[in-house]
Amino acid sequence: MQHIEKGLAQTNMQVIFSMDEVQVEGENLYWRMPDFEKGFETGILETSRENGVEFDSDELRAVVAKSAFMVGRPSTKTRALWDMMKPGYLMIRGVRIWMQPAFTGRSYSNSSLVEIYQGEKVCFQCHKPGYFKAACPTLQSKYDARMSNQPGPQTNMVSTT
Question: What terms describe the molecular function in GO for this protein (predicted)?
Answer without folding.
Answer: nucleic acid binding; zinc ion binding
